[in-house]
Amino acid sequence: MTRVLIVEPGYCPYQAAFDSPQAAISEVIEGDSLLLKPFGTSKIGVVCSKNQSRLKYNRQLEDGCTIRGRFLVCGLSESKLLGLSKEPEERYNRLLFFPPVADMLSDDMTVAKVRPPDARLGR
To answer: Residue 97 CA to chain centroid, in angstroms?
Structure first.
């Protein structure tokens, strides 16, 4: 089983398990996928939709990269996708818990709602 962290727009991240990293990508990501390494480490990657123009705003990551639509956080070994172990999963769950940018209209920090894991995604 491959454990990944799923981050949906407006919600807190949650963990899901899939048979393989490719199964996670095909179930979570809309359209073609893109692999990013925004956290300054070659051991953690973000997989998101390649075409994000029509998707809802999700998060702005550390390097100023804006992500729209659902994305997943996974482990990397060179360019091979892996699952997350418990320690990195907890670290990136805390890091991505709240969207770190101000709401443009109200100038307040946006608050993510807690959503139970989607039964359709993983186990």
So the answer is: 11
